[in-house]
Design brief:
- This protein has 349 residues and is α+β, with helices and mostly antiparallel strands.
- Among the domains are: 2-59, no CATH class; 179-344, Nucleoside Triphosphate Pyrophosphohydrolase (Alpha-Beta Complex).
- The protein contains seven helices and 16 strands.
- It is globular, with a radius of gyration of 21 Å.
Length: 349
């Protein structure tokens, strides 16, 4: 049994690696996943006849930047009160966040939002009502973590970054990692004559990025969203950007085609991976947490999405181009992502 578990874990990690670097991969039905041979796993070749796998579309290679964002401190995951409620987390001091610190008095509040409890299509059932395969690709749901293998205690996964003061799932649909994708779309700020604007303090060119104002908390953020089961990250990046920043679901079909043409041009251009891993998100709990892949797509000449009229989608209250600047507060870990983009492009921060 241990050998089978390890094999499933490696298959999940192989799938994640292929998704990030842009190579094709296959998603197998649960009942056929164990038929993969070790040789096929090593060579990334899957036999359709033997495994009844369904090929997913090839995605474009992303250029990964040489530098990386340091993991943010586990601070927003202990925010008071829990978002969308008046529920107070059990207070967790800095020195007790790590699960390795023995703390017999720890008694986290248990909370799963009523919306999640109603079991929409994007949410898991409660623990005990189903048997998820944690640390593996469970059917179409990716339950592997960028942090590596996480612990499962009393059938529930433990947040790899430590205590949050709240058990259950809160506002998150999945037990364990909830995978998202954050498209950071940027351009150079220009004046009325079309010349690049330089910041008087840093004397560096100013970047702008498309930002949305979240309806749930009122904070400005990158227009990202959750990865659907079986979906490749590149498609999530483009879909979420279209829906949240351009409201593509509500525009007429003819206009939707124009939008698709413009953003496809940008999203098929070389982008670079800004961050991949755990996100210090206020929705995190002891048993459910956010992880993301953040990718920067830059409109260098300003003739791609720069000309499209921005329109907020269902999850956004407002959407606009915002100057990239350290003084502008952003949701969750998004400020860290923008700082990395600015440094990579030698822009003002």
């Amino acid at each position: 049994m241990r050998q089978v578990s390890l094999r499933q874990s490696w298959i999940g990690r192989i799938r994640l690696a292929l998704t990030i670097v842009g190579l094709p991969y296959a998603v197998c039905k649960p009942e056929t996943r164990l038929q993969l041979s070790s040789s096929s796993a090593r060579s990334f070749i899957y036999s359709r006849a033997a495994t009844e796998c369904v090929d997913t579309p090839y995605i474009n290679t992303l250029r990964t930047m040489s530098s990386s964002v340091a993991p943010p401190p586990h601070l927003k995951s202990r925010c008071q009160p829990y978002p969308g409620s008046q529920i107070k987390r059990f207070p967790v001091p800095d020195d007790k966040v790590d699960w390795g610190q023995v703390w017999a008095q720890y008694s986290p509040v248990h909370h799963t939002d009523a919306v999640v409890a109603k079991r929409p299509t994007w949410a898991d059932p409660d623990i005990g009502e189903f048997s998820p395969r944690f640390n593996s690709v469970d059917g179409g749901v990716d339950r592997t973590s960028f942090q590596g293998e996480y612990e499962v205690v009393q059938a529930a996964p433990l947040n790899p970054r430590g205590r949050t003061g709240l058990a259950g799932r809160g506002l998150l649909g999945r037990w364990g990692p909830n995978h998202a994708a954050d498209p950071i779309v940027t351009r150079w700020k220009v004046d009325a004559q079309g010349q690049q604007v330089t910041h008087p303090g840093s004397e560096r060119p100013v970047l702008q990025f498309i930002s949305i104002k979240r309806k749930d908390c009122g904070e400005w953020a990158i227009p990202g969203g959750m990865v659907d089961p079986g979906e490749v990250v590149s498609l999530t990046l483009q879909r979420e950007f279209s829906e949240e920043a351009l409201n593509s679901l509500s525009v007429p079909a003819a206009k939707r085609a124009t939008i698709h043409q413009c953003i496809t041009k940008l999203f098929t251009s070389p982008g670079f991976q800004v961050y991949r891993g755990y996100v210090d998100d206020p929705r995190n709990t002891d048993n459910a947490w956010m992880e993301t892949v953040a990718v920067n797509f830059h409109d260098e000449t300003g003739n791609s999405v720069s000309g499209l009229p921005l329109q907020a989608g269902d999850d956004a209250g407002e959407v606009t181009w915002v100057d990239v600047d350290s003084s502008f507060p952003l949701y969750a870990s998004h400020s860290h992502f923008l700082e990395t983009v600015a440094k990579e492009r030698h822009a003002h921060w």
